Automatic annotation (TrEMBL), chain A:
The chain crosses the membrane at residues 12-31, 43-65, 86-108, 120-138, 150-169, 189-210, 222-244, 273-297, 309-325, 337-358. Belongs to the amino acid-polyamine-organocation (APC) superfamily. Spore germination protein (SGP) (TC 2.A.3.9) family. This is Spore germination protein (Amino acid permease). It holds the Pfam family Spore_permease. GO terms for cellular component: membrane. It is a multi-pass membrane protein. It is found in: Membrane. GO terms for biological process: spore germination. Keywords: Germination, Membrane, Transmembrane, Transmembrane helix, Transport.
UniProtKB/TrEMBL annotation, chain B:
InterPro entries: GerAC_N, Spore_GerAC-like, Spore_GerAC-like_C, Spore_GerAC_C_sf. Residues 1-24 form the signal peptide. This is Ger(X)C family germination protein. PANTHER family: SPORE GERMINATION PROTEIN B3 (PTHR35789:SF1). Its main location: membrane. It comes from Heliophilum fasciatum.
Length: 396, 435
């Protein structure tokens, strides 16, 4: 099992932060504009509504994982529905994360070409980013999360500084009328963008890497809370800075916000500084995208390691990234898929949850054996799953 | 070497090789020596429905100064060069200009865009799209309107008193504006935001060329006119500077002067307001910081001057919105007494209140007159609707509110509260000599 032992335990905080970065990639691209198109001046409420919905989803996920002693979701699907269910589950979620990785990669590439590298071929930007993503995630989640923890204080300070400076230019009036297109419309739009936090599903695949259920639960909630807080704050600053009509047509909103800030002669602009944190968060977030896709695929097909799938999936992602012919096509596909694919995305989890509750929690049924660390104490996702599988077979 | 390590080293080497291939050249390399930085841009209506685009390009050699080096004459014209290109659109003008300059034109240091008045009357929005779209332009660029003339005229005559750097010139003006309030350094971002708001009208600063100073520069070899000749240039009863749109009566300095704003409705210039009106506008729009006000003495014997700061944001309430709205405005100012030219003993607890009340009355009447002027034009650059929209729940309510029509019929009451906190370093003025 090449490399499996290198994925050690993960801390709840580093994982929460790295998953927040994973969630925040879309906010750095076109999400603030999309939210304004969905809900007008009430767009800043959408991440809040979606966060409340996601609390329920996370509670269901945590409950499911607790019942199966933090085995991965494909593994749980396999326990409930056999190998075909596990394969379908893994294949669907891997494809889902891969498609969004590819689309976000393309939008990122288009952004780079539209702003500071207009002459560079798109392929160079995309391939460079993919190679960087592969390098980052090759050593697993623990590695990425520790890298993120080193950078996190700087990123947070600069990010908040940039947004706070921009907020000083804006006005609160732009947030009104407070309910945008209406209360029901806003609530509906909030539900339609529930997938804002779909990256939190990664917890369902990395649960074996946590030392205990409490840590997993805490990490989930901190990731959701932190991601929601940053996203709401970013959205509020964006809306304060632009009128709703302008916001609905704004290309790369957060970058535009950073470009508005001007400090006069001494410290003229902050956008060069902002670009660095922007690139770091996007790189780490995208690395998490390809990592999740490879991890889930490996879990779905019961492969011992995710690493062999990284490169082939990256090649497929590059091919998908080239499918949209224009930037507007890429963003339109991304927005449409984000809304429509969330039905099967959340549906599969809910089906699993209900199946577990109704059919597999019958009186006298034995629950899965608790996760034990692998012999060397590293407790990896794969080694842990494999042992549980063996134990379950014995118990049945 | 273990097989795992071998594979890892191989993978790493492969990745590095790929990166080496990809990063072997830099498609977007920009050497400073190969760029021509445009610092200001002017756009005017030209012949045959085309536009004249003026580009003021920095000449870095002219900016350099130091031991053994001679700076470019210490003027803007020494550190920059102006090109004019006639074309159908701004992008076309840029591409044509590049054909005449030996370096690649770069707009990342662009600070000011000046539009001619004629083009402003026709509408600016078609020409601003490129500024929003092209990545080298920034929304923090300042936009000016050339008063009663062409932007090219401003370009050819501007000669700052001290600065030779156009960027610093712009920054200095931006810093100065809050201290005067006769002008508004509006950015492209502010203008577009105001234009995009359906219930607000935008304003942009107007820049004029002073005829006396311009003549001095042209005919008198940049030397000030002799006093007699200067006085001949003045009308018999000149209005106080800034009260009207007339040029200031002055000699020497920069031919460009910054007084007043142009009012836009849906991107088209509809009115121009003087420096005094701009100051009143900034009080209502809540962009006012401080300014020096000069009022005739209540007894009519002379003048007194106040430096007034904004105490708090204007308190504005709008009632009966759907019928005949009533706008109730309360402004609070405080400040220092700068001078009592009439030499009357106003600096006492009971008398100073007379000055405060008199000044408040003067400002009230100025503001009321300005609002009436805006009502006649059916424009609301004061953004009064901000006090209504924050009470609304849905965008439909705001969109259906025909605010300009309501505003045109609205009744307005203005109350100004002034407190002269400090009399300065002297209490009562010396006694006035009786004739």
């Amino acid at each position: 099992m090449i490399g499996a032992k290198r994925q050690g335990h993960v801390g709840w905080l580093p994982v929460a932060i790295v998953i927040s970065a994973f969630i925040h990639v879309k906010a750095f691209l076109v999400l603030p504009r999309t939210l304004c198109q969905f809900a007008g001046t009430a767009a800043w409420l959408l991440p809040l509504i979606a966060a409340f919905v996601n609390v329920l989803v996370l509670l269901a996920l945590a409950s499911l994982l607790r019942d199966y002693s933090r085995r991965s979701l494909p593994d749980i699907a396999g326990s409930l529905g056999g190998k075909p269910a596990q394969f379908l589950f893994g294949f669907f979620y891997s494809g889902y994360f891969l498609i969004f990785y590819a689309l976000q990669l393309r939008i990122f590439g288009e952004f780079v070409l539209s702003t500071f590298l207009p002459e560079t071929p798109l392929g160079v930007v995309l391939i460079s980013m993919v190679l960087l993503n592969l390098y980052l995630c090759y050593e697993g989640l623990e590695n990425v999360s520790r890298t993120m923890m080193i950078l996190f204080p700087f990123l947070l300070v600069i990010y908040l500084f940039a947004l706070t400076s921009a907020a000083a230019i804006g006005t609160f009036d732009h947030l009104s009328p407070w309910l945008g297109y209406g209360l029901m419309h806003t609530l509906g739009a909030g539900l339609a963008v529930t997938s804002l936090y779909n990256q939190l599903f990664l917890y369902g695949f990395i649960a074996p890497l946590f030392r205990g259920q409490r840590q997993l639960h805490r990490s989930m909630m901190v990731a959701l809370g932190f991601a929601a807080a940053v996203m709401i704050f970013s959205q509020i600053v964006f809306q304060m800075s632009f009128t709703i009509r302008a916001a609905q047509q704004m290309g790369f909103p957060l970058y535009q916000i950073a470009r508005l800030v001007q400090f006069g002669t001494f410290f003229q602009r902050i956008d060069p500084l902002f670009i660095f944190i922007w690139l770091i968060i996007i790189t780490i977030g995208l690395a998490m995208g390809i990592y999740t896709s490879a991890l889930v695929l490996a879990q779905g097909i019961k492969a011992p390691d995710f690493r062999p799938y990284l490169f082939p999936l990256a090649v497929i992602a590059l091919c998908i990234a080239y499918v949209p012919q224009r930037t507007v096509d890429a963003t339109a596909i991304n927005d449409r898929l984000a809304v429509w694919l969330q039905v099967p995305f959340y549906g599969a989890l809910i089906a699993l949850f209900i199946w577990n509750r109704l059919l597999h929690r019958l009186p006298g049924r034995k629950k899965a054996a608790p996760l034990r660390l692998s012999d060397n104490g590293s407790g990896t996702a794969f080694s842990g799953q494999k042992k549980i599988k063996l134990r379950n077979r014995r118990s049945h | 070497m273990q097989p795992t390590w071998r594979r890892r080293v191989l993978c790493f080497t492969l990745q590095l090789s790929c990166l080496t291939l990809l990063l072997a050249g830099c498609w977007d390399r920009n050497e400073l020596e190969q760029l021509a930085f445009v610092l200001t841009l002017g756009i005017d209506r030209s012949v045959d429905n085309q536009i004249d685009v003026m580009l003021r390009v920095a000449v870095p050699v002219g900016v350099e100064a130091g031991p053994g080096k001679k700076a470019g004459g210490g003027t803007v014209s020494g550190t920059t060069k102006v090109l004019t290109v006639t074309a159908r659109s701004v992008p076309e003008a840029i591409s044509l200009a590049e054909a005449t300059i030996e370096r690649q034109i770069d707009f990342r240091h662009l600070r000011i865009v000046v539009f001619g008045e004629q083009l402003a009357k026709e509408g600016l929005l078609p020409y601003l799209d490129v500024f929003e779209r092209y990545h080298q332009f920034r929304r923090s660029t300042y936009i000016w309107i050339a008063k009663e003339g062409a932007a090219r005229h401003i370009f050819l005559t501007t000669d700052p008193v001290l600065e030779k750097s156009v960027s610093r010139y712009a920054e200095d003006l931006a810093r100065l504006v809050p201290q005067l309030s006769f002008f508004r350094m509006a950015t492209l971002h502010e203008f577009i935001n105001e234009t995009d708001s359906p219930q607000v009208d935008a304003v942009l600063p107007i820049v004029a060329v002073n005829p006396i100073v311009e003549r001095e520069k042209k005919e008198n070899n940049n030397a000030p006119l002799p006093t007699d000749e200067y006085h001949q240039q003045l009308p018999e009863n000149p209005e106080p500077g800034g009260k009207t749109l007339a040029p200031l009566y002055r000699s020497g300095g920069n031919p460009s002067e910054f007084l007043g704003v142009a009012v836009f409705h849906q991107g088209k210039l509809v009115d121009k307001w003087s420096g005094w009106e701009t100051r009143d506008y900034s009080l209502l729009r809540d962009t006012y910081k401080r300014s020096i006000w000069v009022f005739p003495s209540p007894t009519g014997l002379g003048f007194f001057s106040l430096q007034l700061h904004r105490t708090r944001a204007p308190q504005i309430t709008i009632t009966d919105v759907n019928d005949v709205p009533h706008i109730d405005i309360a402004l609070s100012l405080e400040g220092n007494l700068l001078g009592i030219q009439s030499l009357e003993p106003y600096v006492s607890s009971d008398k100073i209140a007379d000055l405060e009340a008199y000044a408040a009355g003067q400002i009230q009447s100025q503001i009321a007159a300005l609002i009436q002027k805006a009502q006649r034009q059916k424009v609301d650059p004061f953004y009064f609707v901000r006090f209504l929209r924050t009470k609304m729940l849905t965008m439909k309510e705001l969109d259906e509110l025909n605010w300009r029509e309501h505003f045109a019929q609205a009744t307005v009451t203005v109350a100004v509260d002034i407190k002269i906190r400090r009399p300065g370093l002297r209490i009562q003025p010396r006694e006035r000599e009786t004739p």
